[in-house]
Amino acid sequence: MMSVVLFDDPHTRRQLLPFTFTRPISGIRCGILTLTEKWSMWLKTTPFFLTETYLSLLYPSAPNSASYLYINGSLCPDPTLVQAILYLPLESQLRNPQTNQLLAVRTATANWTPDDSLTKNLDVQLFEEPYTSIEQLWDIFLKNGDQLRMDYAQLTSDRSSAAISDEFTRCYKSENIFLEEGVTIRAAILNAEGGPIYLGKNSVVSEGAIIQGPFALGEGAVIGQGAKIRPNCTIGPFCKVSGEVNNSILFGYSNKAHDGYLGNAVLGEWCNLGANTTNSNLKNDYTTVKLYDYSTRALEDSGQLFCGLFMGDYTKAGINTLFNTGTVVGVNVNVFGAGFQPKHIPSFTWGGQAEGFSTYRYEKALDVIQATIGRRQLTLSDRQQDVLRHIFEQTKPDRTY
């Protein structure tokens, strides 16, 4: 029997921090689904993972198998790519001839790794068709619109949408709108002329909300009253969102429940933005945005004109917090106070630009997480605590205030 394994390329993983502190690359959400969920749907199997040792506590590696199909975890599946990977012969590799990016490996070797010297001995198959991969932080929002369309087509194929019963909700191009069971909508405007709109199971769209597709609302998520949701947004499962949101992704269980602007931004899980928290996504001089690079520990040019906020899991921002263009905030940060915050705030940090910063004590941070997820009737497992402890220790050198 063959095991499918989604592997992390070490360089790409560093480029996708802070999100890959707490998940493999394939755990990133782009479109309706995470990359893991996409591959599971396309291959009709449950994949395993080849990631950092400390993350394997939560993301299991493959058991002993007759053979292994290793797939680059940054890849988004499409029909041509999936076919090329599935037809890859044993003891061979699939590469992009232009960039030499390793796309997939099929081997009987159980202990293969992306930097394995044995890879060079495998037969090389070339994949010359265009494909989508998530290799930089900004790729997540840049490629979200196309991935929303791709996931929508896959998830709704040969299925019928639940009906919209509310007579005061106005829909444009209703054939591009799909509701799972249990969706509640009241006096909203859904405009799918620019792309599809997907509303997940038991999600809620409140009175006065205006949504432009492409857009996805995850299971149990809520769009608040009067929200303005512009194109290319994904609101993941069990999130609560209001205010104005544009080309942004919230992975899951995160809240932006009040007014304020979020644009060209990505939030991990269990984040919270206080009332009127806003990020800038465009510089006044229209030059490209620089943001923090974990590899160089410096600000690097993204080449992007529009680039907003990137916030790691379990991070919270107090009311009226202002984030500059290209701000990168780590895991488990509590940030608040006057003025624009720094372009990079390390993981496990407490404070703000005006008040100063200090280390967010691990025990205190853990208490806050337990309280946060406890409100959703969930608990933090011992393995999750071990992962957070590792991140706390790993990021100590970053906390030089």
From TrEMBL:
Signal peptide: none annotated. The keyword Acyltransferase applies. SUPFAM superfamilies: Trimeric LpxA-like enzymes. InterPro entries: Bifunctiontional_GlmU_bac-type (IPR023917), GlmU-like (IPR050065), Trimer_LpxA-like_sf (IPR011004). GO terms for molecular function: acyltransferase activity; nucleotidyltransferase activity. Keywords: Acyltransferase, Transferase. This is Glucose-1-phosphate thymidylyltransferase. It comes from Arundinibacter roseus.
